[in-house]
Structure formats: structure tokens, C-alpha cells
TrEMBL record:
PANTHER family: MEMBRANE PROTEIN (PTHR36115:SF4), PROLINE-RICH ANTIGEN HOMOLOG-RELATED (PTHR36115). This is RDD domain-containing protein. It is a multi-pass membrane protein. The keyword Transmembrane applies. Signal peptide: none annotated. Keywords: Cell membrane, Membrane, Transmembrane, Transmembrane helix. InterPro entries: Pra-immunoreactive, RDD. GO terms for cellular component: plasma membrane. It comes from Moraxella catarrhalis (Branhamella catarrhalis). Residues 20-148 form the RDD domain.
């Protein structure tokens, strides 16, 4: 079980070394992740929007195949980072990790998929599911609660 201030005992680490990560540090990590995404995909966006600018307005697609592929790549990357590294690059920069709320271990692929797709629920009503992190005793957003995950920070 998880205590109010730290993740429970696990063969991988001592729970006294971790605390739940709050809203602002998670928000900063999100900004870093989004800056990385913007830098990596800027050439694609520039090319794609240049192509659309040359099209008649009534022929511009609402959602292109390239957009779908990009979204799949971003989802796969987030899931891979959570499962293999315990964190996306932004979270790593701040020493944060996504863990299973019960075991304290890195999350599995099914749990990572559930967490990723639960972002939709966290964002649908004015992003209240993300803001909830600031008020929850375990610092869990709605997506964390659904996927049974916590985000922790090493304190030693």
C-alpha cells in the first residue's frame, strides 16, 4: 500500500527515498516534453502547413494521415518511456517517475496504455483531471487514479 508521503516498499527501492510529485513540477516537466516535441516535429508541421496553404480552403483536410501517424508516434513514445524508463524526458529532467500505485514498480504496457488514453478524461472538462493533482493527497490526476499510477520524486 502507498502511504501519504511516499511510495510503499518494493524490491527495487526504499520508499523513504521518494515523495509524490505535485502539480507545478509535473507541469514544468510537461512543458519540457512539449518543447522537445515542438523542436522535433517543427519541420513536419512547417512542410505540412506550407502544403495546405497552397490548397483551396474547401480542400484542406481537417485531419491528415500524417497527423494520425504523428499522434501514434507520440503515443508510442510516451508509453515506451513510461514502461522502459519510468518517465518521459521532461519528467526525467526533474527526477520524476511514473510508478504503479500499489507495487511501486515501473508500469506495464497495459497500464501505460490506460494512463495515456485516460489523459482524454483528464482534459475533457477544462483540464480539471490534471489540476486535480494540486488537491489530491497522493498528487494523482484523474488519469493516474484510473490507471492506478503515481508520479514520484526522489528526495535523497
Amino acid at each position: 500500500m502507498i502511504t501519504n508521503t511516499a511510495v510503499s516498499h518494493s524490491p527495487q527501492y526504499d520508499d523513504s527515498e521518494f515523495e509524490y510529485a505535485g502539480f507545478w513540477i509535473r507541469f514544468a516537466a510537461c512543458i519540457v516534453d512539449n518543447l522537445i516535441i515542438m523542436i522535433i516535429f517543427a519541420p513536419y508541421w512547417f512542410y505540412n502547413y506550407q502544403q495546405m496553404a497552397a490548397m483551396p480552403v474547401d480542400q484542406i483536410p481537417f485531419y491528415s494521415t500524417g497527423d494520425a501517424i504523428l499522434n501514434l508516434v507520440l503515443a508510442a513514445a510516451a508509453i515506451w518511456f513510461w514502461v522502459k524508463k519510468g518517465a518521459t524526458p521532461g519528467k526525467m529532467l526533474f527526477g520524476l517517475q511514473v510508478r504503479d500505485a500499489k507495487t511501486g514498480q515501473f508500469i506495464s504496457v497495459p497500464r501505460a496504455l490506460l494512463r495515456y488514453f485516460s489523459y482524454l478524461i483528464s482534459s475533457v472538462i477544462l483540464c480539471l483531471g490534471f489540476i486535480w493533482v494540486g488537491f489530491d493527497k497522493k498528487k494523482q490526476g484523474w488519469h493516474d487514479k484510473i490507471a492506478k499510477t503515481v508520479v514520484v520524486k526522489r528526495i535523497r
